[in-house]
């Protein structure tokens, strides 16, 4: 059963988060593919951007909702389940990670179809940038993926080299508060984040 959240407005409207919705960090969220009935809930997050990790075109009705709320869409076409399985594209994940760590795009939502594998890999790579210990990174991936976690995803996260990202960003300041999965946070200085223009993905235009 999905999570229902009753808004505080006078009409008692019920907001429905997307499947597998959760908060990654302050201003960073993850979920499965949002349906139209989820946009009422998403509007409460005041999103600036969405990272979409599937190759399929974004539904027209969803695009209209993004446009009306001035939300920028960053699409990175990563194939899902294939036969035979194909490895995660490192360069594409790195490009998505550059968008994710740029706080000018926050608040931001990351999603694929189910919010488990492709989304989990990107979040896992973010955790490595945050210097989480590897066991905690992999534990979070498996918890969010549930029974359908994939060994090749764990291997991808483990082998992903975050130094390529650090070489393309300048003067990013990372500070950590507390310890453990829930308390460790990433604090940024927005004005110091610089992304190389040649690596910026194409975003949906028109707003």
From TrEMBL:
It catalyses: 3,5-bis(diphospho)-1D-myo-inositol 1,2,4,6-tetrakisphosphate + H2O = 3-diphospho-1D-myo-inositol 1,2,4,5,6-pentakisphosphate + phosphate + 2 H(+); 5-diphospho-1D-myo-inositol 1,2,3,4,6-pentakisphosphate + H2O = 1D-myo-inositol hexakisphosphate + phosphate + H(+); 6-diphospho-1D-myo-inositol pentakisphosphate + H2O = 1D-myo-inositol hexakisphosphate + phosphate + H(+); 1,5-bis(diphospho)-1D-myo-inositol 2,3,4,6-tetrakisphosphate + H2O = 1-diphospho-1D-myo-inositol 2,3,4,5,6-pentakisphosphate + phosphate + 2 H(+). GO terms for cellular component: cytoplasm. One of its GO terms (molecular function) is phosphatase activity. Its EC number is 3.6.1.52. Belongs to the protein-tyrosine phosphatase family. Atypical dual-specificity phosphatase Siw14-like subfamily. It comes from Brassica campestris (Field mustard). Keywords: Hydrolase. InterPro entries: PFA-DSPs, Prot-tyrosine_phosphatase-like, Siw14-like, Tyr_Pase_AS, TYR_PHOSPHATASE_DUAL_dom. Residues 20-169 form the Tyrosine-protein phosphatase domain. SUPFAM superfamilies: (Phosphotyrosine protein) phosphatases II. This is diphosphoinositol-polyphosphate diphosphatase.
